[in-house]
Amino acid sequence: MANQVCFRNNHxxxxxxxxxxxxxxxxxxxxxxxxxxxxxxxxxDEIKLSALRGRGGAGFPTGLKWSFMPRNxxxxxxxxxNSDEGEPGxxxxxxxxxxxxxxxxxxxxxxxxxxxxxxxxxxxRGEFWEPYSRFExxxxxxxxxxxxxxxxxxxxxxxxxxSHLGAGAYVCGEETALLNSIEGKKGQPRFKPPFPAGFGLYxxxxxxxxxxxxxxxPVILSKGGQWFLDQGLPNAGGEKLFxxxxxxxxxxxxxxxxxxxxxxxxxxxxGVRDGHQLKAVIPGGSSTPVVPGDQxxxxxxxxxxxxxxxxMLGAGSVIVMDExxxxxxxxxxxxxxxxxxxxxxxxxxxxxxxxxSRVTQRIEDGNGAQADIDLLDSVAGNIEGNTIxxxxxxxxxxxxxxxxxxxxxxxxxxxxxxCMVTSDW
Amino acid sequence: MISEAARADIDRWVxxxxxxxxxxxxxxxxRIVQDENGGSITTEMMDEVAxxxxxxxxxxxxxxxxxxxxxxxxxxxxxxxxxTNISCMLRNSKGVVDHLQExxxxxxxxxxxxxxxxxxxxxxxxxxxxxxxxxVGEHYHEQLNPEKIDRxxxxxxxxx
Amino acid sequence: xxxxxxxxxxxxxxxxxxxxxxxxxxxVADANGVSIPRFCYHKKLSVSANCRMCLVxxxxxxxxxxxxxxPVTDGMKxxxxxxxxxxxxKSVMEFLLIxxxxxxxxxxxxxxxxxxxxxxGYGGDTSRYTEGKRIIKEKDYGSxxxxxxxxxxxxxxxxxxxxxxxxxxxxxxxxxxxxMQIGTYVQKALSSELSGNIxxxxxxxxxxxxxxLFSARSWELKSVPGVAPHDAVGSNIQIQTRNGxxxxxxxxxxxxxxxxxxxxxxxxxxxxxxxxxxxxxPMVRNSDGQLVETDWQSALEAAxxxxxxxxxxxxxxxxxxxxxxxxxxEEFYLLQKLMRGLGSNSVDHRLRQQDFSGQSxxxxxxxxTTLQQIEQQNAxxxxxxxxxxxxxLLSHRIRxxxxxxxxxxxxxxxxxxFNFPLSGEVVTDQLTPALSAIARAMVDMxxxxxxxxxxxxxxxxxxxxxxxxxxxxLIGGEKAMVLMGEIAYRDQNQAVIYALTGAIASMSGAxxxxxxxxxxxxxxxxxxxxxxxxxxxxxxxSVGMDVxxxxxxxxxxxxxxxxxxxxxxxxxxxxxxxxxxxxxxxSLSTFADSVTMGKSDxxxxxxxxxxxxxxxVNAEGEWxxxxxxxxxxxxxxxxxxxxxxxxxxxxxxxFDYNSSEDVLSEVxxxxxxxxxxxxxxxxxxxxxDASSCxxxxxxxxxxxxxxxxSEPLQQTPLAxxxxxxxxxxx
Lengths: 425, 160, 730
Ligand SMILES: Cc1cc2nc3c(=O)[nH]c(=O)nc-3n(C[C@H](O)[C@H](O)[C@H](O)COP(=O)(O)O)c2cc1C
Ligand code: SF4
Ligand code: FES
Fold this sequence. Notes:
The complex is a heterotrimer of chains A (about 425), B (about 160) and C (about 725). Chain A has about 425 residues and is α/β, with parallel strands linked by helices. Chain A contains 17 helices and nine strands. Helices cover about 45% and strands about 10% of the residues of chain A. Chain A is globular. Chain A starts with 17 loop residues before the first helix and ends in a 9-residue tail after the last helix. In chain B, helix 1 packs antiparallel against helix 2, helix 2 crosses helix 3 (about 45-50) and helix 3 (about 45-50) crosses helix 4 (about 55-65). A four-stranded mixed β-sheet of chain B has the order 2-1-3-4, covered by helices on one side. The complex binds flavin mononucleotide (FMN), iron/sulfur cluster and FE2/S2 (inorganic) cluster.
């Protein structure tokens, strides 16, 4: 099966409209909850049962996260949706915003209800003007239909929802940087503790979830946690969106069950570019470790299986590379990305990402020195684990994994001042 | 001076946030004044935004220099933002860049002589499955190839 | 709170330690003498945990944790020097150094640089970094702070200082990542009155003292403790000298007084010490009317003989003495002793006060509580004071109270703004009606007491919501204080304002605090350097002339100590005229201003604050003594020595002191006896004219002869803004 959760409406004409969404049972979940006054605890239990794990990258169980909220504490609480989608290789949330925005709104409503929040923000990256506009229209429709605002459907439940637009900063995808950004500050991550559940947006208890996580909620609650669980694996329920990009015939977003073999996913994406062979795969977005192609062919798209290959499922952003790919060149580009996107507040990341970028570029340019490979590995190791947020780790992991699997290519660059492979791109 | 229309637009954003959190609208405000000013912002504009939102100017400067979509030097009427990150790179974003640079005779960070276009290298735009991608104004242009680019440049020229 | 439950036990480097729940690991380490390297952490600033230098190993934590941001929990085990901790610290050190210019030999921070010091312990021998280093253009922060931003390690202490302490966010981090730069973004001179503190906070040589730049290496300097001479806080300082010259002034930590801060005034006033117009030779006016340099003996003889002459022809009452409110207690004591010995009670130091009609009813001007206690107040009313500029570090305590929720309100003329939020504000040029209205509001709320002479005024007052709000906040504050500042103190109807302010304080159960000019007004009063009181508040048989009367009557013989008449007295030009009218003038002077030079018959060169021992009594009543840091310039002598010899030459008894300590123990002894009777405030019986005429407070860099001569201070934005924002009717 496929396309049963976030993409379940994409086949409908004008799937992004309220009418289309409602025609396929949209907003029924929240209506039922509000009319029956289902207890939040019960709902959270259902989500725990579903084994939904956060789709933003870290894979933290969503039900558990919600249960951390001091939902009965007095005062304002917030639900925040993370539609910053900046991790290279990732472009699934954009399609949820474009094709199924009401499902996200319904998911945020239910989340707000469960964690005791009467207000929410959807943080959309600044470049996503078109998806943002569509989401805004959906918000208007929902407000007009009495699905957002005060006393929703006469239930006594109030929920205000707004979008906040970013302005170009990958690090704002990190949840605390995102909160600072909503507060009108630089998007610098905050040191944790305190955690957002206690001290979040404007200092109030806040839950932050990825777009796909939240958009999955209405389906889980209408079809049941058990149903969702059954789609996937015991510790990773549901179908999930995988963005397959790079050297495949049919790049695209595919919503398939957790645990689908990589080979099947590759098949759906039309296989490796005609006339080429699989070389390597980055399975979860640019910060997850690269996995050699043959190894990848033997593993499934779920947390544990990918972990066994030394990488991570991340946000499900599958970057496929064929034999024409020069690994030092790709790494230099990725290292440059993290260097450009480091927020700059903590020392190892600010200084280390620049160092990694300069040395990888030097190697790519044919000016590498013999000691550079070990140097890169050591610098990456010195960043890892020593920073405020995980961007530092994200910058280090590609370096270490590329060196681990493709050391010979780097050596070749240093020795011969040129690539080992020829690429047509 | 921030125009009446811009003020109204900023006010709309201010309303989204709690009353004492006007500063939350600073990113929107900067975008709005930047758009009004042909794509870039000046120190005076940042000072005005600071005054309008009751913020210390330095905090506006911080925000305006942190996020990459704010420009502090004049840009072309159309700012062509080409993604060169991994997924686009694998699908020949270099070809896109080369083609644009040749057609427009400018490099990254430069503006064409007629002020029509400027070129910017950007990080992942979040449309990786449709690589290579370029953003122009509010719109994404995907699965680019030389023909598509030529057509787009013509359209943009025509538009003005 | 249950302190027992609050207490946790942790193991730090395998040693069991007691700590408070929630304390950060680095605080516990500091308290127990365990050193953890750090750059961004500073005990007076919020935790930013961004330098990562303080990473330590904590049991069961998957990663190294920053000690500055890791709260201790019961049973926690941490190691600051385990192999993993050291490895993390070393890697951070390496990262910090890759882009650092390593220009220690030409850096002023050399010898007092945290980076240099820690690099010795943690840095590698050779750099693995072979790429180009980041170079950052210099910023212009104005005349006080010099920048060398390529040395910046982005610890953000200066940024947090601006937000959290100065209350003026001017410095920030602009740009992102490796491109991030600490600075003001636009060229901008810093405008805080506390800006110099970022020099001390900066752990490297990025922010330095501009006037001190390249003038000495820190290890060549000798440090002598001192007390800052510009306001009633009595900030503790270190006067740093080389070859008998003051090179620099830095703060000396004293949590009870100035914490770790000093004002820019305290830090940079030393630059006036070598002004060209320092008086360095005794001078006497000859028969042609020319001032000629002479020796001490001749000058002192001329001074004493001249004064005795006046006393013998016109009586002691024809003599008057005026002293700077920043004179030492020893100087004040000997001055009044000399004057009273010569038969005059006309001695005063309250140079900017105009109305003395209430002086006999007033208590010694003081805080009434400790500086630290200010932070604990729930409600504060500031009456007539630009307190942030007037008493910068006292104001900082009020700011802390305000930020932790105290209701701070003001009754002030227009245009005075503070770096802390106000809960209420009464803006007026007329303090009397405003204060009457607040008092009236209190009476209406049933808070009456004996208002005596104030009754009619209060009864007639018109209570507006702003007055009501102030009254309510004071009454509602469990701990409240009412502070009367310079503008109120200088008012032409000070007596009424004083009585009203006192009444408001007593009706609301608040502490009544009076702040005065100079560094030692309280010391001046205790020592008896006032016309209406002898030492230790002893009564006098007849009240002498106060400042205003002396200006009015121009005493025949005048003794001036540390005075520049035109700038130091409220009635500047009139005061100068009075001096010119006087028949015989002796000036103990540090600087040669035109009135002194044009009129004085004898000029005795007076040592500056760095050149003399002495004692200041600060606003809270703390006696703080200090020794001289350098020898007086030229032939100048400490005031107490000059006055001692004058007393002896005048054949007065009791002037045979061997040291300033002898003088101090005598005056201190008298005051200690008297202190058993607590000074109290009582309502006035007679009020006179009730209208007030508010005058502006003295601009921050105009308060005394030193700050007026410190060029770098005069170049700051505050030196100019000061006149504009506090301008009122003069
Ligand atoms: C540098 C960095 C970038 C991130 N970018 C995103 C992002 O674009 N979208 C996202 O949902 N989560 C992102 N995350 C993860 C978030 O911090 C957070 O874990 C997530 O939004 C939580 O939602 P979830 O539990 O539903 O996955 C990022 C994390 C880091 C460290
Ligand atoms: S790891 Fe990088 S992005 Fe994250 S807080 Fe540190 S400097 Fe900023
Ligand atoms: S001192 Fe702890 S991170 Fe800087």
